[in-house]
Automatic annotation (TrEMBL):
<feature type="region of interest" description="Disordered">
    <location>
        <begin position="28"/>
        <end position="62"/>
    </location>
</feature>
<keyword id="KW-0449">Lipoprotein</keyword>
<dbReference type="InterPro" id="IPR006059">
    <property type="entry name" value="SBP"/>
</dbReference>
<dbReference type="Pfam" id="PF13416">
    <property type="entry name" value="SBP_bac_8"/>
</dbReference>
<keyword id="KW-0564">Palmitate</keyword>
<keyword id="KW-0732">Signal</keyword>
<feature type="compositionally biased region" description="Polar residues">
    <location>
        <begin position="28"/>
        <end position="43"/>
    </location>
</feature>
<keyword id="KW-1003">Cell membrane</keyword>
<dbReference type="InterPro" id="IPR050490">
    <property type="entry name" value="Bact_solute-bd_prot1"/>
</dbReference>
<keyword id="KW-0472">Membrane</keyword>
<feature type="signal peptide">
    <location>
        <begin position="1"/>
        <end position="20"/>
    </location>
</feature>
<protein>
    <submittedName>
        <fullName>Sugar ABC transporter substrate-binding protein</fullName>
    </submittedName>
</protein>
Length: 483
């Protein structure tokens, strides 16, 4: 069973590590767990003299030198440089040098470099750090990276500051509903149920509404005496198998607010709407799965991560991101699994994420920097991660052209082809919306505070309305101060 993201790539073993460190900081169970937060103390753009336009090999006869910063260790830096070397050898105009910055000092170092006017040309950043740097004038407009007619990154994974693209995710990830087929079939057999009626739909067109999802989860929840949660004899204190669990990381819970017609923020990003009735109602429904319907386990630290939910073989269905195919499920999982679309409250929606690379506004060579990143973003350079299921492609052709889609999902690491295409590929294309950090600043601080607010709800000490009312002023202040 695959537990780590370091996977060998088709090109070379080291290529995987190189692309991995540019990947999905928010795709792990901790939204910024691997990606160092770059929002703290972000400096303003230093005042410098107007720079001469970028020179090229045509005018100088020498390659333009581009630097790319990342927070890997020595091995990862060497691996990233190996990928850059392949790019360097593929053309005679640009030379990329990889700069190693220690993970623990990444933010401090970038800020110091910005103050000194010594930022690299390009770099990896955390999702939550992008807009702070953009706000301070430190990120370049990358809207010209792709030409008319090019296959482009999906709009949902484009970081925008005041409507201008400033970064693209290096990979795409969406939230879906995963389930243990073996456990589902076992419970249905014992209760005399038709498995097809309880299998999560793979199409948004046939997605369960919330009430249906809850009832099915209750039916699949059984106590140690074999009674399901709809039975008057059900013992909620002695549950053997739970029907579902929902990942309660604050950034993931945003999907339910959106599904219920609300959201943490207004659609135009100008208001904090975490206390909106629709949002509060949606979040309370998540708490009710455990507290009222007893069809989900109580929320404890990391207890509803996919590894500890489906992995325990005591939970039938669980929500989480598509990266789990490569990091947890994969071909070596000791149970058969499937994937379906999320249930919905009012709107059929999922959210996406993926770690970005950026071009700094201080570069003397913006065109060359974008040329490098455009090449670096090619799926061929991260193919092993895509093939394994840890990453999803970013270019729209992989979602619209069957030739590319089939190349992506026709492999033994994935569940059934038609199931995955409908529940993941089509769903990501048609029903995915950007996670808040693509257009809202300071989401890391906001989500950390929201996590504190939620803790009293998960423990049963407060309702969701009471908790959000208590924290609203602090949450709104974080939003209004930074946006």
């Amino acid at each position: 069973m695959q537990k780590k993201r370091l996977l060998s790539m088709a090109l070379t073993v080291v290529t995987t590590t190189a692309m991995l460190v540019t990947g999905c900081g928010a795709s792990s169970q901790s939204a910024q767990g691997e990606a160092q937060d770059t929002t703290q103390n972000a400096v303003e753009t230093p005042k410098t003299e107007t720079e001469t336009p970028a020179s090229t090999s045509e005018s100088t006869g020498e390659k333009v030198h581009i630097t790319y910063a990342q927070w890997g260790n020595e091995t990862e830096t060497a691996a990233t440089q190996a990928v850059a070397d392949k790019f360097n050898q593929s053309q005679d105009e640009i030379e990329v040098e990889v700069i190693k910055i220690d993970h623990d000092t990444y933010v401090t170092k970038l800020n110091a470099m910005a103050t000194a006017g010594e930022l690299p040309d390009t770099a990896i950043m955390s999702e939550a750090g992008v807009l702070k740097f953009a706000e301070n004038g430190l990120l370049a407009d990358i809207s010209s990276m792709y030409d008319e007619g090019d296959s482009k990154p999906l709009d949902s994974i484009t970081f925008k500051y005041q409507g201008t693209p400033v970064a693209y995710s290096a990979a795409n990830e969406v939230l879906t509903l995963w389930y243990n087929i073996d456990l589902l079939e076992e419970i249905c057999s014992k209760q005399g149920l038709n498995v097809a009626d309880f299998t999560p739909p793979a199409s948004a067109d046939s997605a369960w509404d919330w009430d249906t999802f809850v009832k099915i989860a209750q039916t699949l929840t059984v106590d140690i005496n074999g009674n399901n949660a709809l039975s008057p004899d059900f013992d909620p204190a002695n549950v053997d198998v739970y029907g579902c669990t929902v990942n309660t990381l604050p950034w993931q819970l945003e999907v339910w607010a959106k599904s219920n017609g609300g959201g943490y923020y207004s659609a135009d990003g100008k208001e904090c709407t975490i206390n909106d009735d629709a949002t509060v109602e949606a979040l309370q429904k998540i708490a009710d799965l455990s507290d009222v319907y007893h069809c989900a386990p109580p929320v404890t630290s990391a207890a509803n991560a996919l590894e500890s939910s489906l992995g325990s073989k005591k939970v039938v269905m669980a929500t989480d991101g598509t990266w789990n195919v490569g990091t947890f499920l994969g071909p070596s999982a000791d149970f058969k699994y499937g994937v379906g679309v999320l249930p919905y409250m009012k709107e059929k929606v999922t959210i996406c994420t993926g770690g970005p690379n950026v071009v700094f506004a201080t570069t003397k060579h913006p065109e060359e920097a974008m040329t490098w990143l455009k090449w670096y973003y090619q799926e061929e350079n991260s193919w092993s991660l895509i093939e394994a299921g840890t990453w999803m492609p970013i270019l729209d052709k992989w979602y619209t052209d069957d030739e590319f889609t089939n190349k992506w999902i026709d492999n033994p690491n994935y569940p059934d082809h038609d199931m995955y295409k409908s529940a993941v590929v089509d769903y990501a294309r048609e029903n995915s919306q950007s996670t808040a950090w693509y257009y809202i600043n300071a989401t890391d601080e906001f989500n950390a505070t929201l996590d504190s607010a939620f803790s009293a709800v998960w423990s049963g000490d407060q309702t969701m309305k009471e908790a959000i009312d208590e924290y609203y002023d602090e949450l709104n202040d974080i939003f209004s101060t930074n946006n």
